[in-house]
Amino acid sequence: MTGAGAAGTPGAPAGPPGSPAGPSGAFAEPAERVGRGWTAALALANGAVWAGWYGPIQVLLALQAAGLAPPGTSKESVLAWVTGLGAAVSLVANPFFGALSDRTVSRFGRRTPWIVAGVLGGAAALCLLATARSVAVMAAGWCLVQLALNAAFAAVTAAVPDRVPHLQRGAVGGWLGAAQILGVVAGTGLATVAGGVAAGYVACAAFTVLATLPYVLRYRDLRIGPGDRPPFAWRSFVRGFWISPRRHPDLAWAWLTRFLVNLGNAIALLYLLYYLRDALHRPRPEDGVLVLTAVNGVMLLATVVVGGIWSDRTGRRKPFVLWSGVIMAAATALLAGWQTWTGALVAAALLGVGFGVFTSVDFALMTDVLPAAAHRARDLGVVNVANSLPQVAAPALAAPVVTYLGGYQVLYLVAAGIGLAGALLVRRIRGVE
Q: pTM of the predicted model, to two decimals?
């Protein structure tokens, strides 16, 4: 790998228009390999965002919903409404802020201002959640968390196609995936050991800010000038969020693959704490969530970077996405057919293996099928809807299944079937091996 300070590589000062760090470099397909320091700092920033999301999702929101649910309203319904509203905000926020970052002209670059604003806003919103004493405030706080952290996430992910050449994206995607699960573990751990719901939110907020500092303080972003962006018009701005499946079929099939695999995973995780409490009768289900998350994380870390590097070396993406999706579907089905603590541990391990490979290679695949360099963040924001839309759909599907259609056994069979369908659809992509 080249050093972080080499010309044209991440870490080099942003130069004037026409230089490698100026507008021509911002819109060109990257050719220089990125350095280890840049990759590590960006991965840490990515992990910070995921800690801010998953400390609440895995533990804090579920505990808060149980404590704030009005009489006659189930905790499952409160959690479903809050997470669903937050995911709806995420649907709009990610592509919207991505499109704004594509157009941002500043001496700090296109992406860095949105990373800074996003993590600071997200931390403030997490502190608001710490003070929530009603479902309304809880919902408002979570929507603000989603709004702000999606601004940061859109900018972080866009840095990869901005700076990383195609044949290094599997490896970099692997390191970002490793940081993602470490962020999930960190957020879950902070939420569990901080000493209460309010303290858990504050701990997640602090970690989210501190872990982003190495990237925003050490590495400069690519810049564009005012003349490098088209004139703004609301109609064309809004129309740009529609990417025609007819004109870009590979992107459409890749998006659907990601959506279905993530939907199956979201359904499986949504009621994990309640599954441990109500189906497996664990005495401290929040501790069980932490153990399962740790097991999942260890297995994911064992495969996420290796899978990305292997994909880069073979030049192939689809077989890795297909078989990782099959493994995840099989693991989810285990939660339906083997409802014991041992079964949950085995399922968590298999989910980690599958999701590790899927995380790195599917991310590389998505960046390989983006339509144009000038609006990478906007298009990745549309791609990331396939991550957030399942958070809206999962509560709508899961709540009636658990309540009326057979409980957790049926829920996990449905989740497995959806994930398997997504994995099989990757075969429809033609432009990527």
A: 0.76
